[in-house]
Known about the structure:
Elements: H1 21-37, E1 42-46, H2 53-67, E2 70-76, H3 83-94, H4 105-118, E3 122-128, H5 136-144, E4 154-159, H6 170-176, E5 178-182, H7 188-202, H8 210-219, H9 225-241, H10 249-260, H11 264-272, H12 275-286, E6 290-292, H13 293-301, H14 308-320, E7 324-329, E8 337-342
Helix pairs in contact: 1-2, 3-4, 5-6, 7-8, 7-9, 8-9, 8-10, 9-10
Amino acid sequence: MNVNRIYLSSDYLPKLLPHRENQIKLLAKKIENFVKHGIESNIFIYGSQGIGKTATVKFVSKLAEENYNIKCIYINCWKNNTEASVLYEINKQLGIITHRRGLSTDELFDRFIEGLTKIAKRVCIIMDEIDKLEKRENLLYKFSRLDETGNKPLFIFIANKKDIFRLLDPRIQSSMFLDEIEFKKYALDELKDIFDERIKLAFENYEAGCSLLVANYSFNHESDVRYGLKLLLRASYIAEDENTKKLKVEHIKKAMKEIDDMDPKKESMIKQLKKELVDIIGLLKEENGITTTSKLFEKYRTIYPITVRTFRNYLKKLKESGIIEIEEHRGGERGSKFFVKLKV
Ligand SMILES: Nc1ncnc2c1ncn2[C@@H]1O[C@H](COP(=O)(O)OP(=O)(O)OP(=O)(O)O)[C@@H](O)[C@H]1O
Ligand SMILES: [Mg+2]
C-alpha cells in the first residue's frame, strides 16, 4: 500500500485548514493592519489542545511573509523555556549571531532592540505555548515597554488556558493591549472534513467510512486532531502488514483496539527508564510516533547537548527494549533516511 506518512505527522502544515477560515481571516486582517498602520494591539490566542492554533498561526504568518514586508519569528516556549533562550532564539531568527553562553539576558535584550532597528521590515513575534515559559513576567514586562519608535513588533501569544495573562501584573496587561481570539473545539462534522482532507493526502485508496470513524475517535478525545492522526498512522501500519491496497474501516477499528490494549508491561518498562530515554519517547509522541533520526536528534539536542554517538546508543537501547523501531528508507534526493517509529 502506498502511504504518504509525512501527511500524518502533526508537524505537517496543511495547505488547507477547514473550519479555521474565520480565525485565519481575522489574524490576517490584524497583521495587515499592523503592517500598514503600526501597532494597535497584540494578540492572544487560546483554546484546548490539538485544535489548530499553531497550524493557523503558522499558516497566516507564512502568507503574511509572502505578501508583506514582514518578518515572522516563531518561538515555542516549551522548547525555549527561559528568558535567555527565548531571546537567543529571537535574535537568531533576526539574523543576529551571538554565542549562546556568555551573554546576560540584558545584553541579549540590547542586541534584540538593536536588531529590530536594523531590520528594514516589520516584525511579528509569535510566542507559542507561552504558559511553559519560566518567569514569563520578566520578559513580558520588557516587551511591554518596547518603544514605538524602535520598530516595535507585533506579538502573538498562544496558550491553552485563557487565564494566563489575568494572573500577570496589571501594568503588563494594560500596556500589551491584548486582543483575544478564542479557538473552540471542533464539532464532529468539522473533524470529518479535516480527516477527509488528511486521508486524501496520505492514502491513495481508502474506504469512505474511514474519515468518520477517525473523526469520531478524535471527537471522543477532546476533539484533539492529533489523536485521529495517531490512529490513522497505526491503521496505516496494520494495512501495510496485511498487504492490502486500500485503507479499510476494519484497519481503523483494529488500530483503536491496539491503542486501547496498549501493553501494560511496556508501559511499566517505560516508567523505569532513565529520564534521558523517556524524553526521547516524549519527543517521538509529539511527532505522532514517527520521524527521522536526524530530526529527532535536532530536537533532542535542544534539551540535552549530547553527541550523535550517545544519541545512537540511546536509540539502540530503546530498540532493544522493543519500544522503537528503526527503518531505513533508501533513495530520495539526499540518500537514505532513517525513520524512528514508536511501537508503544
Ligand atoms: N482545521 C484543520 N485542518 C487540518 N489540519 C488541522 C486542522 N486543525 C488542526 N489540524 C492538525 O492537527 C494537528 C494539531 O494542530 P495544532 O498543532 O495546530 O494544535 P494546537 O491547537 O496548537 O495544539 P496545542 O495546544 O497542543 O499546541 C496538526 O497536525 C494540524 O495540522
Ligand atoms: Mg500548538
